[in-house]
Structure formats: C-alpha cells, structure tokens
Design a protein that fits this description.
Blueprint lengths: L3 E4 L2 E4 L4 E7 L8 E7 L6 E6 L6 E3 L7 E6 L4 E6 L8 E8 L13 E2 L3 E6 L1
Parallel strand pairs: 2-11
Antiparallel strand pairs: 1-3, 3-8, 4-5, 4-9, 5-6, 7-8, 9-10, 9-11
Length: about 120
C-alpha cells in the first residue's frame, strides 16, 4: 500500500510556473506507475500526465503537452509536475495517483491510490 501527499499548489498569474510534488510513503515506490489528474469546478477529473515506474516513459494530455513535465525521483519517493505557461484553464485541484504496474493508465479507475489534492489557481 502507498500513501500520497501533494504539495506546491497556489495562486499564480497567467504565463507563470508552478512545480507540484507528490511524496509517497512505503519502500516500493519504484514499482508504481504514477499519474497526475486535475479537476476544475463543476467538471470531471481529467488525466494530465503520467510516467512509468522507472520514469523512462511519459504521457501527457494534449492540453498540457509542451508546457508540463512529469518526472520522478525514486530515491526520494517523489513525483513532480513542472507546469509552465499556465493559463486560466489550468485552474483546478491537482491529484497524484499510483498504480502498481510498470505502465500507467489515463483513466481514474486505473489507479488504486490517490492523494488529497492541491489547489492550483491561475489568474488571468
């Protein structure tokens, strides 16, 4: 089992950057593919980015490709989401999720473990 805690959210102006972190408990973090999802008010939670358990392969939604970068440090049990060129449509609660597998999923149901979320607000 793994517990996840996100941090790094906040208020930023359009065009700015934020880096989110997700710290995982447990000794087997390197066995988990990790994903980031977000949920805007009144909308469904949507896939943002994911990477394999080794960190060697990544995937992004079309809306963030080229602006966001997902990475992980297995020695620190942490996954990151670097967000650049933020715009108002990026506003929402960002969640990290873990899937005990080499490969990730782009659907919520593919992940067994979730963090509590961190709020990102982009002002225009």
């Amino acid at each position: 089992q793994v517990q996840l805690v996100e941090s790094g959210g906040g208020l930023v102006q359009a065009g700015g950057s934020l880096r989110l972190s997700c710290a995982a408990s447990g000794r087997t973090f390197s066995r988990y593919a990790m994903g980031w999802f977000r949920q805007a008010p009144g909308k469904e939670r949507e896939f943002v980015a994911a990477l394999s358990s080794s960190g060697g392969r990544t995937d992004y939604s079309d809306s963030v490709k080229g602006r966001f970068t997902i990475s992980r440090d297995n020695a620190k049990n942490t996954v990151y989401l670097q967000m650049n060129s933020l715009n108002a449509e990026d506003t929402g609660v960002y969640y990290c999720a873990a899937k005990e597998s080499y490969t990730w999923a782009i659907y919520r149901s593919g992940y067994a473990y979730w963090g509590q979320g961190t709020q990102v607000t982009v002002s225009s």
